[in-house]
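Why do we care about 3D structure at all? Because function follows from shape, and shape follows, mostly, from sequence. That is the central idea of this module. The next example makes it concrete: a single protein chain, its amino acid sequence, and then its structure expressed as tokens.
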Amino acid sequence: MLLALLCLCGICQAQIGVKPVARRGVADLRKVDVDAQKTALTGEWKWYWHQLLKPGQTAPSFEYIQFPKLWSASQWKGKPVPSQGYATYALTILLPPHSERMGLELPAQYTSYQLFVNGEEITEDGQPGTTRSTTTPYWSTQLVLLPEADTLQVLLQIANFEHYKGGPNLPPRIGNLNRLRGERYTALALDILLTGCLLMSGLFFLGLFSFNRYDRSMLYFGLFCLLYNYRIIGADTYALHVLFTNIPWAITSRLEYGSLYLAIATFALYTKALYPKDIHPWIIRLVWGLCFAFTATLAFSPLFFTRFMAYFMWLSVGCIGYVAYIYWLAARRRRPGATYSLLSTGVLMIVFSLVLGDYLTLIEAPRLLLTTGYMTFFFFQSLVLSYRFGFIINEARHTEKQFLANMSHEIRTPLNAILGFSTMLETTPLNTEQQEAVGFIRSAGRNLLTIVNDILDISKIEAGMLSLESIPFSLTALVDSLRTMMSPIAAEKELQLIVETDPDLPAVVQGDPTRLTQVLLNLLSNAIKFTKKGSVTVRILLNSETEENVRVRMMVQDTGIGMDSDALPYIFERFRQASDFTTRYYGGTGLGLNIVRSLVEMQGGWINVTSKLGEGSCFTLEIPYQKTDDQQASVSNWAESAPEADNQPLSILIAEDNLMNQKLALQVLKRLGHVGTVAENGQQAIDILRKQSFDLVLMDIQMPVMDGYTTTQHIRQTLRSKVPIIAMTAHALASERERCLQAGMNDFMPKPFQINELQRVIRKYAPSPMLAVPTAIPAPPAPIVTMQSTDFSFDQLVHILDDDLTFAFELLDLYLVQTPGELDQIRQALQQQDTKTIKGILHAQKGPIQTLGLTRVVEQNLRLETLLLAGSDVSAVHTLVEEYVAMLDAELVVIDTSLQAKRAHAANE
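And the structure:
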């Protein structure tokens, strides 16, 4: 319907002024209101073939011919004439009385002309001649002022020796000069405006592609905009020729044709890049090849390459139709941005129909409608790319989130064993050297856990998923708790830790004590770390107070190494530290202060720093808190102690598929005085719950047969059980916590868990109140020792298990029984090209081989899992899988030999 409307508009536009048709060389306009309308000078003109007459010259013969009419469709004295040659056209115009000056608009002809009116030369386009050497072709649209007279004698010379077509193509139009000039300037302005928009769009998307070189659709669309740009400014109105009048026609004609050829080829590649799964590659290759074949013709003379334009126009129609089909197909399949693509193609089909009709002289396409159509098309295509760009960003964020979740899982799983077993070892009789070694393990594990938590905190903050709580707490008690915790660390470095609190502070405020503790603990830790001698001072002051709120200012000041003033503007940025020396000498990731600033700003506060190199630093922050009458304050307790067994033993179900984690959980629960029962997967956990009741369920998330989410939902909905379920997973993102709670779990504990934290959660959900955990001041952390990972060592495993030889034998027996069967499953899955099974077994084996210290096997496992998660098929990883199986087979022999030798040695003793 819209196409018909536009065509009707074009036809109406073309019909303006065509009513008075010239007859026998005379155009009688005496009954036409020439001031109000423009008139196309069509009809019968006198025609002098192979004659270039000048005013005053006579010719022996002439014929009347319909004007405009190409020479290839004309006859002189009954015989066809060629498209190459020269001729003169004459017309007498009778004008009515008029009040305004008359003007004449003469469009480009094939391919040069010279206009005389009443004996005077008015304008020229190129230079017509009688030979190719004397003819200079040029294309432009001329608007000239006509002499003041009631009768106009028009003489028009036309010559063509360069183009496939020859002769007049469009009629001159006569009318009010100001009216014609306004229309002309409007057309030029619209073309220049559209050119500017296309130029900026092209450069913009090329710039976007330079930042994201993976999405080639941006590259192709940017190139398409720049290429098609010339079609707008270098054709039709020839706005470029108005600005630059001396460009040779041999160059402009090639640019006009070549820009169209390459633009269509680029648009085909753009469509392929947009929806590669919906196109037919051979069609795109065909279009691309034909476009470049047409472009190659530009190397020949214009007389040769211009004859192919009509064929290319029909090829373009077919291309647009095919593109419309592809976009319709993509929209049906819900591809990103496909709806906008389909709309843009619909607009393009309308525009191209008008352009084609104008090219074939069927209609005169309205300039404003063409410009609006072009801008609508490019606007929709920009929306497509913007939508895709946003889609790519969202996909990248999702990938980042998934990566962080996987990273959290893979790092926290071995950390769970490291911290868990080291905590258990501390509760056993140890000599001085053993206590020191256990301290090293715990210190290294805690530092690694801090780094992981920092990265996850940043992820939560960026995603807006780090929630703040608002509960009553005591600022004074919180600071005292921090002083108790940090005093031993400061004392170890012989530093004085000074804490000053304002006596006017409210006894209790409403806010988030956990996040405040995290902020102050980070600042205090940094202050102590970067101070070799002197003191660290903490000041908590009441800055201002209203009836409902207080603003509390906190300062952490040290006499440490300080910072250069040039580093201060960047100190709160991510991965930035004061200097490279600071990173090398003191370590750290440069994430802590960025997290501190984010947490302070999330609570409505601010933070800044002043520092002087060699004298120390002072971090000042201010946070608003609400006043509260609730005097039951909550204070974070950071002190730890060795866990004590509870007086009330509980029956706890452990849903966990990893053997090492099963053993660790059973040992911890036994140490805490509870009885644990293991279920290797979710289905087994449900079967056990049908037969036996439990006080608590510890639920792993990733398990075979049935995962933790499905198992929990089944327990809640099918079994109708209200048993407390605690999620225990190495995934620690906030979204994971929310998903666990939505599935029906009561609480969430990320691995590696602390024994005290596990005991706290157990007591929280126990059927009746249990003893509180006594607290004590922890011993100062020992320095971090970096140990080189080695392959399997029986003695190292026994040392980790607190010299429990029986427990070590049991673990290795389990491993030697289970692993060969898993390797057989991998071999079978490899033959069946079952990547899902391979990936699942690799994931299950990761924890045990890390615990056993099989370094090379772990590296191969991680390499394989990364490739499989990236979507690699079996053929891409076949060799690596075979190498992995062979390596693990070899390690099994070593483990079995070592186990037998140790058993024999133990029996002899």
